[in-house]
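Re: your question about Ribose transport system permease protein

S., sorry for the slow reply, the queue was backed up all week. Below is exactly what I fed in.
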Amino acid sequence: MSDLAVSTRSLSPAMKRALGAFARYATIIGLLAMIAAFSILSPRAFPTIYNFTNVLNQTSLAMIIAGGLTLAVIVGELDLSIGFAASLHGVLVTGLIVSSKLPIGVAILIVILLGGLIGLVNGLIVTKVKVNSVIATLGVGTILTGLSFAYSAGVPITAGVPEAFLQVSLGRWLFGIPNNIVIMVIVLGALWLLVERTALGQEIQAVGGNPSAARLAGINVDRIKILGFVISGMCAALTGILLASRLGSGTTSAADPYLLTAFAAVFLGSATLRDGEFHVFGTFIGAMIIAFGFNGLNIFGAPTYSQYIFQGAILIIAVGLSSLGRILSQR
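Result:
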């Protein structure tokens, strides 16, 4: 039993309830407090429709990849390959369009299916070969980095990228809303409906809550875990595609930084509204906290290194709040 668990036993019931409420609502309160503080300190630049839209647009890709990761984490596994996979997918989709002359829609479909295949490989290694998910996905991610360098020779693919592909990410096809925001809402909405409103989603949560009990209840635990990895892989592929479209190039390591951002958002989300449970809406809130934090730092001209410090601190706080909520829920 952890020291934190032991220490909470000595608290009064009222104090435990207060700590539990803090663990559940701290992220939302923190987000609102951050928005209020930045709005007061920079009333002309921060609290504007343009800035809020820009924040959503900039963080939409991180939300998509974090949404997929959420499914893998819900079933009790970790996917460390997502950032490397997204980088590879960005290179591949650009190469298929520019070098192989495939239609944009066909290239996108192929890459998304490939993302699902990579997720399938991750899932099979974890469930059938019984390799720890951290080791398995880190190994697969390293292989994907090598394949990305092999395909592009380490040189960004920029020449000949068609304007139509750029508009996939940069366009505003629906009521003037940036496409990335629309796609993000659709993806997160679909994932939320899957987990919260379907029988399959109940199985996913059951496997994450207690795999042994789920197996005794007749649930195919391995199949559910593999599904979590497949969804994570497909979301990573979509993120890589949209990033390549936004940048106008396929760059070998372009999406690598999304790995830390995604994990920070997911763990922040587990401390939102629920007692240490991972869920899609919470991941959205976690990503918003990170996005507005970065946005505020940029507006006030904070140096680049402060963003890394902020993100690292957020990850530590997120895991701490998640652990606190989980321990108090078991009191």
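The two ends are 12 Å apart (CA to CA). The chain has a mean pLDDT of 89.

Happy to talk it through on Thursday.
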